[in-house]
Task: structure prediction
Amino acid sequence: MAVNRQAPPADRAVFWYGCNMLRHGEVIRASARLLDAVGVETAPAGGPSHCCGSPQEANARIAEGMARRTVEAFNATGREQVITWCPSCHMNMQDLMAPVTPVRFDTAHITEVLHARRDRLRRLLTHRVPARVLLHRHLGFQPRVPVNDLVADLLRLIPGLTLVEHPLAVPGHMCSALAGVPGALAAAQRATLDAMAQAGADTLATIFHSCHREAVILERGRSLRVANWVHLLAEAAGWPCEDGYKALRNAGNPRAVAGEAGLTAAGEAAFERLIEPELRKPPPA
Amino acid sequence: MSLATRIDEEGERLAAACTACGACVRACPMTPLAPGVEAADAGAVAAGMRALLRGEEAAPEAIAWIGACTRSGQCTPACPERLDVALMMRFVSMRARGALGEAPRVAAKADSGWSARVKAFARLTLTEEEQARWL
Result:
């Protein structure tokens, strides 16, 4: 179903990609390029120095300090809009950050911005992406931003791509929330695989980064593809956008995939202590 | 206004307007994964949530429900009082984890390596120029 929303006005914006998106550098890069291509000149900003405070939600004083630093940094840019990626960041900005620290910008989600300018986006998407795609939908962010409908509309712009119909929308606002409740993520993934089989889908399109990071392992031993919606748009635009995290996560030996250059860049000790345990984490049970 | 004040004052306003009818609990897709909640009276679970929002004690089923909240947002449209129940749940989730300095009733999702981990991924996935401009 097509969604009609007003075009967000800003042509210069901060692209606030969040913290955990740093696992997916190619998605940050492609997202900024997509925004630029539809006429929004962005300044990407993220990482712990631009945190919404949610990692410290058990301490309001610390969370507030982190959030205030971020709001003040965005205010200082003079840009009138902050374009979000992460649903946690987006909701925290509206619910916890802006009511506490005055903001000099409005907030829009990247899907709203691209959707509002989809006529320009359509012209970029000239490469066929033959795939039968199930969109990985969550219930939680949809009432705030109808992201399930917006991303569906964006994927329908891709030549050769068929978006299959299925009513499944799993609980939570993204998969990282489900991961914190025993059994919830595994149940959502089983339901997703069942939905793909029922709908005859060969590709699962994730919307959010944490969902993508949890879903890429579904490719193991199965004849299906997991791609983020930005990967699919980039592919249709003919842009390089290799899924680096998936390659690492599904490799028998992630160190080999990272290579000498990757290990040096991340830091040998940091890779071993911080990155490798996540990449070798077993599937949810 | 501080964040703690917002949680406390806006939480109290929402708690005062809540009738604990239980519609939010019945609409929640996570109740099957929250121990004891499906078997409990939905109104009692909602009353417990309201109590926790005020920093008061609550039954284990209410604590289990708060602990299982994944921000599905189905509670808000279910509320006959048209309260922003998802925001109530956000506030109560923080408060129950000790955000206002009270004893935690729900275990906080602690990841002491979060910041170092995302920085390590940044070094792995971004160029040095991108790190300099985007972090």
Strands of chain A lie at 12-18, 41-46, 81-84, 106-109, 131-135, 161-163, 203-206, 225-228.
